[in-house]
Design goal:
By secondary structure, the chain is α/β, with parallel strands linked by helices. Helix 7 packs across helix 34 and helix 23 packs parallel to helix 25. It is 50% helix and 15% strand. Among the domains are: 212 residues, Rossmann fold; 320 residues, Glycogen Phosphorylase B (Rossmann fold), CATH 3.40.50.2000. The structure holds alpha-D-glucopyranosyl-2-carboxylic acid amide. The site of alpha-D-glucopyranosyl-2-carboxylic acid amide has 16 residues, from helix 7.
């Protein structure tokens, strides 16, 4: 390509192509240029938001230079690429991350100080990119960071929601949802108006034989919506690689809007069409671990899958390779079942549009896709009704039926006597109406299926996907335990701890190879080191206490034990167990003499998290936490001994303040329900202890850091089913200590007792599905052990350091390498040369 461009043009281009700033002066010059020209502000009206914008634009320019080079390098290398399809990318803020990843935070800090700003204030101006609900979306964001850091040629594909996850306010103890319009000023995206895909909905399928005697299938007369690409640069840490996250935005297809209706005088209805089309990418569905079969959601899914697949196929076709080489060039990972239609769409492209035979196409499809399952909760497993798909995507329904038919025929051949098996593994559930089981389709259309922690991966094989293990054998199913990026979750969120670690082990290499943390272990008895370790934790607690002071208006004692549970509010995550435990503690304090109270360890119980707007029980839990806080926090008998804080609007940027400040964090789901959990990893990596059940990744964390460094309690996953059974058929009695807690609530201690009736009756009368009562004793006893352990600060700090030293396994870099080796079959790109060039210039 390059040789076709005349020498003089190349020279001119090279002479003027931007190099990106590296010094303080260059940074200031870039930032001021953007503030004065791009933003039309001046020295006299540059507020913090403008300074943020100028800084962000300067860094964006810098990233995009590397982004361009990365894309060129990846095209030339012509290697296999990975495409990560996720409806959620919970990115949080980009500026701090970009500054750290390109190694210019100190440059920016000094430059901003020159211009009269504190870097912390500037960073805090940024609106979180909150295109996700919880763990699943944040995992996708950590994965992007790791893929770029490890120099994989990998793209993310998602939707550019105009509204991310709602903003949460608490009014009179109740959650209120406020729309999160975040696109007013977003310097981190590049609209690519030249990159678009027309996506079709509705219509009908025309099958006929053409003049040459060939069977033609054509999907006709549908409604067309255009997908436009918005690209978000994803910088790796300490590498020239900047990968791409491509988000699709929907608008009415231009042809339709401008001419047909407009000319025939239907201006208003044309505008209405336009708005209807834009609705597709308007809003993120705010449910975590819950699926509601809404047509608009299915439209989102297909819109995004179709746009992404056509983009991927277009790129592949440029290489002029044979179709049989497709899966040597392309790997696609499905983040949960949300993108399962991509399987059907690729089959449709290959058969209907490219003219391949069914079998040939299907071989390509199944060797391209991998599917990650994130949950065994039945209410979260996606099913779409057949009539809905028939109407919206008539051709896709035919293809699904054909996939199912062929699959069932192959099963029947192998298990001729097992009629029931066919019904159980069929993609179509024979209900009224019939339903398409998306997880089954995802399994059948992929070459690998993985769970996200060992226990979870075992559970899917023995429960929800048991029959598929029988059909395919166990090797199709595998485990990749989740991880987190240490760049954001240690270096960025806890810079002082990161610095202390680097000073002890000689460099920041551990941020790229987290197993190097094990070099800390020899220092567990180093007095000076332990003192600094403890000081940093304390400083982080002071910082959180200040945050509580400014947002809630009251003070908490940073010397108290900080006990934190922040995550989506869900019955299976059992925030109710936590708040009942708090009430139990409150009652104990009330009944003590002043002498006894003196022996207690003061505690601050911090809660945070959003409830899905339609999840009434979760909202009731939030209400109770807030009401308990109102009473406890102003009770003079209690004082500093107990404070209950509900932090509003928990999100990624708040997590960066909260996580480093914990002494104890709670990961207390009913055993067998939390697939992995990832905040458990974040808290331990920041020197906090865990109280947890033997669930999800808690089990592997225990194995790595040692049983003596974690506070485990509760029933085991293998016993849960029997216990539930016993609740319904045995002589089931609620734990007497818990009954006292309920009596306390019923007396109206925390206001209107009726408001919390459902929470209590769920346990007392309706079988206690999540086993709150069964685990209550063990939970409270373990909390007492924690109080005792906390009194010995020296031993506590030893545990803290030892745990951090042993957390190397939980980096998302390790996960990405595992996916690359065992599922995607891709290799990182060599960037040594690029690094050298960079070092020379
Ligand atoms: C899921 C699970 C979590 C898991 C996360 C990432 O509930 O346990 O850690 O995905 O795999 N919906 C989720 O957040």
């Amino acid at each position: 390509v390059e040789s076709s461009i005349p020498e003089h043009m190349r020279e001119a281009w090279k002479k003027f192509s931007p190099k990106g700033f590296t010094t303080k002066d260059e940074f200031e010059s870039e930032a001021v240029k953007h503030i004065e020209t791009t933003l039309a502000r001046s020295l006299f009206n540059c507020d913090e938001l403008a300074a943020y914008s100028g800084t962000a634009l300067a860094f964006r320019d810098r990233l995009i230079i590397d982004w361009n080079k990365t894309q060129q390098r990846q095209s030339f290398a012509d290697q296999k690429r990975l495409y990560y399809l996720s409806l959620e990318f919970l990115m949080g803020r980009a500026l701090d991350n970009a500054m750290l990843n390109v190694g210019l935070k100190n440059v920016a800090k000094d430059g901003l100080a020159d211009l009269g700003f504190r870097i912390e204030d500037i960073i805090a101006q940024e609106h979180d990119a909150a295109l996700g609900n919880g763990g699943l979306g944040r995992l996708a964001a950590c994965f992007l960071d790791s893929m770029a850091t490890l120099n994989y040629a990998a793209w993310g594909y998602g939707l550019r929601y105009r509204y991310g996850i709602f903003k949460q306010e608490i009014q009179d103890g109740y959650q209120v949802e406020i729309p999160d319009y975040w696109l007013d000023f977003n310097p981190w995206e590049f609209p690519r108006h030249d990159v678009s895909v027309d996506v079709q909905f509705y219509g009908w399928v025309n099958k006929y034989t053409n003049d040459e005697g060939k069977q033609i299938v054509s999907w006709q007369d549908g409604e067309i919506v255009t997908a436009t690409a918005y690209d978000v640069p994803v910088p790796g840490y300490g590498t020239p690689t900047v990968n791409n996250l491509r988000l699709w935005s929907s608008k009415a297809s231009s042809g339709e809007f401008d001419f047909a209706k407009f000319n025939s005088g239907e201006y208003e209805s044309a505008v209405a069409d336009e708005q209807r089309a834009e609705t597709i990418s308007a809003v993120l569905y705010p449910n975590d671990n819950l699926e509601r079969g809404k047509e608009l959601r299915l439209k989102q899914q297909y819109f995004w899958c179709a746009a992404s697949l056509h983009d991927i196929v277009r790129r592949f076709k440029k290489s002029k390779r044979k179709w049989s080489e497709f899966s040597d060039q392309v790997a696609i990972q499905l983040n949960d079942t949300h993108p399962t239609l991509a399987i059907v769409e690729l089959q449709r492209i290959l058969v209907d549009m490219e003219g391949l035979g069914w079998d040939e196409a299907w071989t390509i499809v199944t060797s391209t896709f991998g599917y990650t399952n994130h949950t065994v909760l039945p209410e979260a497993l996606e099913k779409w009704s057949v009539p809905l798909i028939q109407n919206l995507l008539p051709r896709h329904l035919q293809i699904i039926y054909e996939i199912n038919l062929q699959f069932l025929q192959s099963v029947e051949k192998r298990f001729p006597k097992d009629r029931d098996l066919l019904g159980r593994v069929s993609i179509i559930e024979e209900s009224q109406p019939k339903m398409v089981r998306m997880a089954y389709l995802a399994i059948i259309g992929s070459h690998k299926v993985n769970g996200v922690a060992e226990l979870h991966s075992d559970l899917i094989k023995t429960t929800i996907f048991k029959d598929f293990v029988k059909v395919y054998g166990p090797d199709k199913f595998t485990n990749v335990t989740n991880g987190i990026t240490p760049r954001r979750w240690l270096h960025q969120a806890n810079p002082r701890l990161s610095e202390l670690i680097a000073s002890k082990i000689g460099s920041y290499e551990f941020l790229k190879d987290l197993t190097l943390l094990n070099k800390l272990e020899p220092f567990v008895d180093d007095k000076e080191f332990k003192k600094e370790w403890a000081e940093i934790k304390y400083a982080n607690k002071v910082r959180l206490a200040q945050h509580i002071q400014t947002t809630k208006g009251y003070s908490v004692n940073p010397k108290a034990l900080f006990d934190i549970q922040v995550k989506r509010i869900h019955e299976y995550k059992r925030q109710q167990l936590n708040i009942f435990g708090v009430i139990h503690r409150y009652m104990a304090i009330k009944s003590m003499s002043p002498e006894e109270r003196k022996k207690l360890v003061p505690r601050v119980s911090v809660f945070g998290g959003k409830a899905a707007p339609g999840y009434w029980m979760a909202k009731t839990i939030i209400h109770l936490i807030n009401k308990v806080g109102e009473v406890v926090n102003k009770d003079p008998d209690v004082g500093d001994l107990l404070k209950v804080v509900f932090l509003e609007d928990y999100n990624v940027s708040k997590a960066e303040i909260i996580v480093p400040a914990s002494d104890i964090s709670e990961h207390i789901s009913t055993a067998g329900t939390e697939a992995s959990g990832t905040s458990n990893m974040k808290f331990v990596l920041n020197g906090g202890m865990i109280i947890g059940t033997l669930d999800g990744a808690n089990i592997e964390i225990t194995r790595e850091i040692g049983e003596q460094n974690i506070f485990l309690f509760g029933n085991l996953s293998e016993d849960v089913e029997d216990l539930r059974h016993h609740h319904f058929y045995g002589d089931y009695k609620v734990n007497p200590e818990l009954v006292k807690v309920f009596d306390c609530i019923k007396k109206g201690t925390f206001g209107d007792e009726g408001a919390f009736g459902a929470l209590i009756s769920g346990i007392v009368e309706h079988g206690d599905y999540y086993l709150v009562s069964d685990d209550f004793n063990s939970y409270c006893q373990t909390q007492d052990l924690i109080d005792e352990a906390y009194k010995d600060q020296d031993a506590w700090v030893t545990k803290s350091i030892t745990s951090v030293a042993r957390m190397g396994f939980f980096t998302s870099d390790r996960c990405i390498n595992e996916y690359a080796d065992t599922i995607w079959n891709i290799e990182p790109l060599d960037v040594a040369e690029e690094k050298e060039v960079r070092a020379r210039t």
